[in-house]
Design goal:
The model has no long low-confidence stretch (mean pLDDT 84). With 131 residues, the chain is an alpha+beta fold. Strands 1-2-3-4 form a four-stranded mixed sheet, with helices on one face. It contains three helices and four strands; from the N terminus they run βαβββαα. The N and C termini lie far apart (49 Å). Strand 1 (2-6), helix 1 (13-26) and strand 2 form a beta-alpha-beta unit. It has a single domain, classed as Ribosome hibernation promotion factor-like (Double Stranded RNA Binding Domain, 2-Layer Sandwich), CATH 3.30.160.100.
């Protein structure tokens, strides 16, 4: 996994926090992400206020990229907000995939229903004739 952090100095202590926290959130997935991009921007320059934006983009193999943003007064708070949003998205995506895999397919359900009606074992699959 390649990790790119933009908008922070190389010696910023927040950089180590980002490097430690992001891989921990990605561990529960089936496949590890191919790239993660974390970008910090100051929306209105040195004027001050709630204007630090942190954007996290995670590229997963054979999936659409996940994107989360957070806006706060400091870089750390902006990252924490974006990270929480990303963690919720990852959790929701994992639950959605898990639930889809657990649902019985229609042919399986139909065969079980026929077997319950007949009170016997499910019918055997027809054999293919070899040519």
């Amino acid at each position: 996994m390649s990790l790119v952090i933009e908008g922070l100095a190389l010696d910023d202590p927040l950089r180590t926090h980002v490097v430690d926290k992001l891989p921990a959130a990605m561990r529960g997935g089936r496949r590890p992400p191919t790239a993660v991009r974390v970008g910090f921007t100051d929306q209105n320059g040195p004027k001050g206020g709630v204007d630090i934006r942190c954007a996290i983009t995670v590229e997963l193999p054979r999936r659409a990229p996940l994107h989360a943003e957070g806006v706060a007064e400091t870089h750390r708070l902006a990252f924490d907000g974006a990270f929480d949003t990303l963690a919720r998205e990852l959790k929701r995506d994992r639950e959605r995939r898990r639930d889809a895999a657990r649902r019985p397919k229609k042919y399986f359900a139909a065969r079980k229903a026929l077997a319950a009606d007949e009170g016997s074992a499910p019918p055997a699959r027809p054999r293919r004739r070899s040519a």
